[in-house]
Design goal:
- 21% of the residues lie in helices and 24% in strands.
- By secondary structure, it is α+β, with helices and mostly antiparallel strands.
- 2% of the residues are buried.
Length: 85
């Protein structure tokens, strides 16, 4: 499980105030509150060499109102996969 403060700790310290920032809105419903969610990918045991399916959790932020994950919250590798679908 991921520590919710992990994202804050990984970002560089910037001298910003809230009035210098912009809200992030859900691309689907324009809601401005998000929660941490996990996008799960799996790999075949043949691919990993373990003989067992392996799961890779990828932390993302999902809209609290509708569950949508904005494209900007996806890792670049998933952006190309999601745009193909």
């Amino acid at each position: 499980m991921h520590n919710k403060n992990q994202y804050v700790m990984e970002q560089p310290r910037l001298n910003l105030t809230i009035d210098q920032t912009l809200p992030v809105e859900c691309e689907k419903c324009n809601h401005t509150f998000f929660e941490e969610a996990l996008h799960i990918r799996k790999a075949s045991g043949l691919l990993t060499g373990t003989g067992q399916t392996t799961y890779m959790p990828i932390p993302v932020f999902a809209c609290k109102a509708c569950g949508h994950v904005n494209t900007e919250f996806l890792p670049k590798e998933l952006k190309s996969i999601s745009s193909d679908n």
